[in-house]
Amino acid sequence: MEELATIEREIEELKSKSKSVYWNDEIILKTLNDCANCFFDLIGGETCYFYLAPKRGKDVEYEYVISRKIRSGFTKTPDQIPNKVISSYLGKDKQNSIGWVRLTYSDANGFSFSPADKKRLSDMAQIAALAIEDSIKYANNALIAECNQLAVILAFVRIIEAKSKWTLGHSERVTNIGVMLLEAALGDQEWVMSIDQDEVYRLERWFKFAGLLHDLGKVGISDALIDKPGRLTDEEFEKIKLHPGIGGSLMDVLGLECTKAIVPMIEHHHENYDGSGYPAGLKGNEIPPGSRILKIADVYCAITEERPYRSPLAHWDAVEEIKRHSGRFFDPKLVEIFCKLPIESFEKNVEKTTSEAEPVAEQTQEEQIGEDPYHIPSIRKYSVYTKK
After folding, report:
1. In contact, 179 and 207? CB cutoff 8 Å
2. Is 214 in the same domain as 348?
3. CA distance 343 to 301
4. What's the CA gap between 322 and 330, in Å, rounded?
5. CA 140 to CA 157: how far, in whole Å?
C-alpha cells in the first residue's frame, strides 16, 4: 500500500529530525520572528539576519525583511561615523553561542546605529538565545510526539488490512478518493465558507489518517458478519452499525492529540445528510465535514468493489447512484464537486504513477560559523515576515 509506505517515510523523517534540530519548524520560526520584532522596536534597523550554528542542527540563515516606517525624528549625530551594521553572538560569547544575529540599515537613507545600540543588541541577544533554545527543545518534543502518533496509526491500519480480504486495500482507496474530493472542496469558496475555519487545518492535516482508519471498528465485529455472502438480517445489521463507535473508542482511549480531529470523522462517516443515518442521526451541517467527505468516498469505493454479496458497479453507474441520493445520503454541494473529479483516469494511472516515482535525494550543505559575524553564508534558506 502506497499510503502505508508514505506514513512509514513520514515516521522516519520525523525520527531523523527529532535527533537533531529541525530549523524550519513553525515554533522556532515564530520565536525568531518575535525576537526580530523586539530588536526592531527597541534598537532599530531595516533587516534582521539570524545565523544558527551547524553544530546545533541544520545550517540555516533566517532573513527577516520587515517593511515599516522608520521612527520619525531620528537623526544621527554629526560626529558619528555612519554604522549601517551591528551584530552580536546569540549567547554570552562565541564559545557559548548558538549562532549570531545582525541588524542592518540600507545605504538608501541617513540612519545608522550608535555604540549604545551595539551594547543593547548584545544584551538582548543573550535573552533571545535562551528563548530560541527553549523553542528548539519544545519543537523537538513535538516532533517525537507526532512520530509516536503516526506509529500508532500505522499499526492500526495494518490491523485493518489483515482483518479481511474485503478490507484489504479498501481503506487506502477510500483515502485516495477522499483526499481528491477534499482538495477540490477546499478550492470551492462556497463550501469552505460553509464550515468552521478551524476545521480547515484539521482536514488538511488529519483527514488522510481518518480515511485510513474509518473502518477500524470492524476489528470488533465478527468475521462471519463482514464476510457473509448473503443479505444481513436486521439483528446482524445492528451489530455492523456499531463499528464507527468502536473505531472512535479505540482511538479515543489512546489519548493522542490527533484523536480530537480524527475521532469525529470516524464516528460519523455513516450519518446521512437527511438525518436518517447512524449512530447519532446527525443532519446536514451537524455532520462533521470530514465525515461528509468520507461518506461519499466510502460509498463510491464500496459499490465499485467486488463483495461476496454483489458484483461491482462501473464508475459512471456509481456516480449516477451517488447523484441520485444527493441531499438524502450525501451533502449536495460535495456531490456536485465529486461528479467533476477525474476519478476514473486517476485510478487507472495511480499504480503507474507510484511505480515511476523516484525518491528525491536530500541536499545538505554545511557551513561553519564564520570568524566574522558580519559574514553572510553563501547559501541561504529563508523565511520572510512582513510587518504591516
Report:
1. yes
2. yes
3. 11
4. 8
5. 26
Angstrom distances, CA of residue 54 to CA of 24, 51, 96: 14, 9, 14
pTM comes to 0.58
C-alpha span between 148 and 69 (Å, rounded):
46
Contact 299, 287 (CB under 8 A): no
CATH number of the CATH domain containing 291: 1.10.3210.10
64 beta partners: 48
> Average pLDDT, whole number, for the chain?
76
Residue 74 confidence class, pLDDT cut points 50, 70, 90: very low
Q: Which residue's entry shows cell 523565511?
A: 383
Domain extent for 71: 18-139
DSSP-based three-state secondary structure for 20: coil
Q: Which residue has the cell 555612519?
A: 82
CB atoms within 10 A of CB 285: 13
| Residue where a domain terminates, one of 139, 172, 194 | 139
Question: For residue range 212-242, what is the model confidence (pLDDT) as tens digits?
Answer: 888 888 888 887 887 787 788 888 888 888 9
Domain count within the chain: 2
CATH number at residue 30: 3.30.450.40
